[in-house]
């Protein structure tokens, strides 16, 4: 999976325009594209000028052609309008785990803790 994340700070008088354009021109079309299984705009409640945009793609082969699309060009225009230097990240994610991962890891940690305690007891008994 490949994740695109854009974090930007909009000028106070441009926030609504940027969010509206992200929603209509960038996010909604992305959600219709094959290979894109997630696209979302986030605006922070306590800092409404901070806007995040995230897309998740099955693979880089699906995302790559989008980089030269009109939709992506509009996203780059919004990035250029940012009041501060924006963050643009492409992440390759090789593994994803669910809640069962927590249970497995907790069990392994508990097992490791009990082994460590037995080891300490053995050291104390020898000394």
Task: Please give the structural blueprint.
Layout: E1 2-9, H1 15-31, E2 36-43, E3 50-57, H2 60-63, H3 70-80, E4 87-92, H4 99-126
Antiparallel strand pairs: 1-3, 1-4, 2-3
Description:
By secondary structure, this protein is of the alpha+beta class. The chain folds into 2 domains: 2-92, Alpha-Beta Plaits; 97-127. It is 47% helix and 24% strand. It has 4 helices and 4 strands, in the order βαββααβα. The protein has helices at residues 15-31, 60-63, 70-80, 99-126, and strands at residues 2-9, 36-43, 50-57, 87-92. Strand 2 (36-43) and strand 3 form a beta hairpin. The N and C termini lie far apart (53 Å).
Q: Shape, please?
A: globular
In total, how many domains does the architecture comprise? 2
Q: Tell me the strand percentage band.
A: 15-25%
| Main beta-sheet strand count, sense and barrel state | 4 strands, antiparallel
The computed structural class is alpha+beta
In the predicted model, the low-confidence regions spanning at least 5 consecutive residues are none
Say what the CATH topology of the largest domain is: Alpha-Beta Plaits
Mean pLDDT: 90
Alpha plus pi helix count: 4
The first-to-last residue Cα distance is 53 Å
Report strand order across the widest sheet.
2-3-1-4
Number of strands: 4
Helix and strand sequence: EHEEHHEH
CA-atom Rg in angstroms: 22 Å
Task: Specify the helix fraction band.
Answer: 40-55%
Query: What's the CATH architecture name of the largest domain?
Result: 2-Layer Sandwich
Write down the CATH class of the largest domain.
Alpha Beta
């Amino acid at each position: 999976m490949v994740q695109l994340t854009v974090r930007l700070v909009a000028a106070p008088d441009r926030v609504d325009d940027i969010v509206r354009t992200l929603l209509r021109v960038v996010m909604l079309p992305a959600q219709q594209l094959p290979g894109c299984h997630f696209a979302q705009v986030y605006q922070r409640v306590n800092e409404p000028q901070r806007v995040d945009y995230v897309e998740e793609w099955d693979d880089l082969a699906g995302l790559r052609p989008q980089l030269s699309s009109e939709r992506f060009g509009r996203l780059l225009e919004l990035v250029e309008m940012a009041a501060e230097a924006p963050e643009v990240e492409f992440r390759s994610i090789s593994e994803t785990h669910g809640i069962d991962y927590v249970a497995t890891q907790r069990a392994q940690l508990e097992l490791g803790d009990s082994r460590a305690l037995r080891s300490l007891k053995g050291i104390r008994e020898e000394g």
